[in-house]
Amino acid sequence: MKFDMGSTTLSTLTRSTSGSSDDLGTLIHLLIAAVEPLEGKFNGEGKATFDSFKRHADEITADLNGSLASILGGQSSMDSAFGSGDVEQSHNAKHNMGAANFDAARFRG
To answer: What pLDDT is recorded for position 73?
Structure first.
């Protein structure tokens, strides 16, 4: 199995996810506004669930945004770790090449 990821993959993903965080709260409030005309059209458990959703919309939005913020933090940390690992790998390779005795590996006929 081969794992191949470009050097900008995680930073691009983080930027995309960051924009989604702003959209999420807006979408929840748009959903509530869109179903307002249905408010008096149903009863029972459906009405209770809808009313509860409306009452807790800000809390739901905050919870979802908090979860998304955690995802963003993880993406950012992974980006940092991959970047550090890339630099360290390059440094180690250069160091080891400098210490290698390439003349000893020559084959003489």
So the answer is: 86
